[in-house]
Amino acid sequence: MSASHADAAGAPALSAGAGTGKVPGVVPPARTMSSTPYPHLFQPLDLGHCTLPNRVLMGSMHTGLEDHARDFPKLAAYFRERAEGGVGLMVTGGIAPNLVGWLKPFAGKLSWPWEVHKHRIVTRAVHEAGGRICLQILHAGRYAAHPLLVSASKAKAPISPLTPRALTAWGVERQIRAFVNTARLAREAGYDGVEVMGSEGYLINQFLAARTNKRRDDWGGTPEKRMRFAVEIVRRIREAVGPDFILIYRLSMLELVEGGSAWDEIVMQARAIEAAGASIINTGIGWHEARVPTIATSVPRGAFAGVTAKLKPHVSLPLVATNRINMPEVAEAILAGGQADMVSMARPLLADPAWVNKAREGRRDDINTCIACNQACLDHVFVNKRASCLVNPRACAETELNYLPVQVAKKIAVVGAGPAGLACATVAAGRGHQVTLFDSAAEIGGQFNLAKTIPGKEEFHETLRYFGKQIETTGVELRLGQRVGTAELANAGFDAVVLATGIRPRKVDFPGADHPKVVSYLDVLQGRVVPGRKVAIIGAGGIGFDVAEFLVHEGHSPSLDTGRWMAEWGVAPDFEGPGGLAAPRPEAPARELWLLQRSPGKPGARLGKTTGWIHRAALKAKGVQALGGVEYLGVDDTGLRIRVDGREQLLPVDHVVVCAGQEPLRELLEPLQVAGVQAHLIGGADVAAELDAKRAIDQGSRLAAAL
What we know:
Helix 14 (419-431) packs parallel to helix 16 and helix 14 runs parallel beside helix 23 (693-706). An 8-stranded parallel barrel has the order 3-4-5-8-9-10-11-12, surrounded by 6 helices. The protein has 3 domains: 43-381, Alpha-Beta Barrel (TIM Barrel); 411-504 and 663-706, 3-Layer(aba) Sandwich (Rossmann fold), CATH 3.40.50.720; 507-554 and 590-660, 3-Layer(bba) Sandwich (FAD/NAD(P)-binding domain), CATH 3.50.50.60. The model is unreliable at 1-33 (pLDDT under 50). The chain is built from 23 helices and 27 strands. The longest helix is centred in the first third of the chain and has 20 residues, at 169-188. It is α/β, with parallel strands linked by helices.
């Protein structure tokens, strides 16, 4: 545990308004619907036995806190803060109904009476904050990472090394009873309802789809028989819990896998689920093995709302749209257009627990927007780490990292307005310190200003908007276009100096490295050089892939155009056909590219676990040639000479773009030390790693919490 982490440990969690003049734990009174700029979003929803105050569902997202009883107080604090933030209805991360349904050994499970008490910690916290919460029942089926896994048929998932055991007819009955038992226990634990996970390729989905259900008994074969498992689960849960209990069913509307359900089957299932007693149908998009992105930042906002709208005429119960709904204007447009009755957001509420209250109050610019990076949520959970958030280090750490008001205000200088400096300056000022933020550039952002230029990463504009607003509201004194020197920092009476001065690109050393063809990625992304039609990129890390995306696209980004994006990835525009797939139609690349790395192996192997495949697939579709184990022999007028596997090649390129890593920029450190000033190093100035905004913001925030 870091010092800043340890200093804050055990402190009570603050509300999301901490540091902004709000009283922790006090929820502002709701405005009337007519006073909000998003009237459809804040229209109450009558479910019969209860009325939700707005149309926001905090969708299920595994945090890692569900898996250990000792972490349930932390989980309770996490949900309490979102309930205080105004969310209408919340859903937990997936909880298994039995041992064979575990996602992994000893993962979250509710099947025994003695497991109820830990869940009461969560429900009590939510209800005290005026919220409602449902438990998601998720049976992993063949996606389970343990040897007890079962499925409709004996068919191994392509993303798992394990082969499931095919359930017998009696085994199917046991799984249904397990779902019902968990629902009963959830009610006993104080939950307001349950969500049955029937999507994303988990067990229920494995029964529904012909590609995974090869049974010849009453649970397989025809669409009616394949969906019987799902319908029986919903029918028996409703029978067991009574009418005054919310029952959400996560319906797989767009599976995005070969051999997935056809649209008429989805409609048939939705009608049967409604008849069986569901309260709400939530949209499920994709399977984990699908090769179409669904929640990454490159996916257009609200890209899949159309499939929810397509189902709406066929059922009468409320429908929930989901995926890449991260700002109130997006949610409002979906609801106002009649595409859905609610919107589901998981990661946007990880990023900002007060999202709903801020939207209701018309404070859109105060929202800390989820950029769908997946770097600290999904990437962490998939390697058995606790989830966090790139833009909100307090996510899932609400009992540990708190921005407490200061007892004695200090005068603090922060040098560098990149991710680390912005986080440090605004958190410190929000706590009550007097902060001056220096940057030699004409605008805030640092490396964020490079990231926002990459097609598919336009969401970084929102992050910069948020930090700009935070500078304004917390009272940071901003000095742009000013290169501050040692004398000023040493003699201006600062109690603390923080160096967030970032990085400089690492230079390459081979014959011809000084040739005019050789340029830095900064030259390209900042517009000083427009590369020719044939380009080699040296360095296939995160920056190399970003530069490749920048160079193969021309004009308007597909991430801002749902139709073009769906054509590129092969999603049927009418969502018809098995799995809703069509033949991919990627647009012609703007340039011919070679993406090169010194180290052997496949370029991009070290990218993010949940998004790396997207980057690799996107560039492959654009014809980018990715080579590992490359030796650079030199650059001359004819191009770049390389050696791969002992063979020399000439790449006839117009430009060579160097993305070969970074070095810390610490020019001020030694002079300050000589002057007797103790400086704190954060961000790239501390560790110059690629695409490291997550660590930079976390480090800057934790330092600010301890100053």
